[in-house]
């Protein structure tokens, strides 16, 4: 494992502690809820557009995926 990677073991069945789950919730609540799509291609295009908007904004990702418990993680 690379020296700059720290594994943080999470309790099982705890999606609220997984930072990516916060990002999925943000995307669902801000981009994907209460919408209808003409077909699968339209749904996929909307999903990809939202993903690009979110992940290209570093401050947004940092804010949405903030996990205070990660501050306590230490490298070995």
TrEMBL record:
Domain of life assignment: Bacteria
GO function terms (MF aspect): nucleic acid binding
Coiled-coil ranges (or none): none
Residue span, Tc1-like transposase DDE domain: 3-43
Pfam families xref list: DDE_3
Name used for this protein in its record: Tc1-like transposase DDE domain-containing protein
Organism annotation: Pirellulimonas nuda
């Amino acid at each position: 494992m690379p020296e700059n990677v720290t594994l943080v073991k999470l309790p099982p069945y705890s999606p609220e502690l997984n930072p990516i789950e916060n990002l999925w919730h943000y995307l669902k609540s801000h981009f994907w809820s209460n919408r209808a799509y003409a077909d699968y291609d339209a749904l996929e295009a909307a999903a990809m557009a939202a993903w690009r908007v979110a992940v290209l904004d570093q401050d947004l990702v940092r804010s949405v995926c903030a996990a205070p418990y990660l501050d306590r993680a230490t490298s070995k």
